[in-house]
Amino acid sequence: MDVKNAFLHGDLHEEVYMQPLPGVDVPFGHVCRLRRALYGLKQAPRAWFERFVTVIRAAGFSPSDHDPALFVHLSSHGRTLLLLYVDDMLITGDDGEHISQVKKQLSEQFLMSDLGPLSYFLGIEVLHSAKGYYLSQSKYIRDLISRSGIIGNRTTVTPMDLHLQLCPTDVTPLEDASRYRHIVGSLVYLTVTRLDIAHAVHILSQFVSAPTLVHFRHLLHVLRYLQGT
């Protein structure tokens, strides 16, 4: 499910003023006081989350002790789980009737769209079968390889050589270190579903402060492995 214009639902607890918009006539020297949060306001994400917590608590949910964005509802009919990520949410549980009721309650408070059964969330593709759920980040990988600028279809069979030893000062410093950091950061998220690259990413992430050409070459090696698998 997706909340439309989520940040506009937040209540402000501080006094915040703004210049009137062009075309709005106010007396000279006057400004406008915000009553609700706006996009771009630094308090807006927090204000939205606090408002959502108030609404979901009123529906009988409690935040998880392990993740403040995971909310749990327990009843004699079973358990309902709701996960919030900014303005996107997943809801699942044992009682389909209760899930429908929760969706209705939320829709009465926020403008929402129901995207149907889960198939894609935060770069993760979700396939459901009789055996369970299958998680994949194949599209995420394709997009990452496209952004990295890899040329050709050459692949590798392992993410990293088994006995590879990298040093912080290996040869020439990389001219654009931000590119290295961006790819490493993307690979860290990819380890959610690709545990086979976790060790290689762990090694390469140790050099994000000052990567060299050697480090970058091994980073591309991981991408070529992903390209072939």
TrEMBL record:
Transmembrane segments: none annotated. Residues 208-223 form the CRIB domain. PROSITE patterns: CRIB (PS50108). InterPro entries: CRIB_dom (IPR000095), RVT_2 (IPR013103). This is CRIB domain-containing protein. It comes from Zizania palustris. The lineage of its organism: Eukaryota, Viridiplantae, Streptophyta, Embryophyta, Tracheophyta.
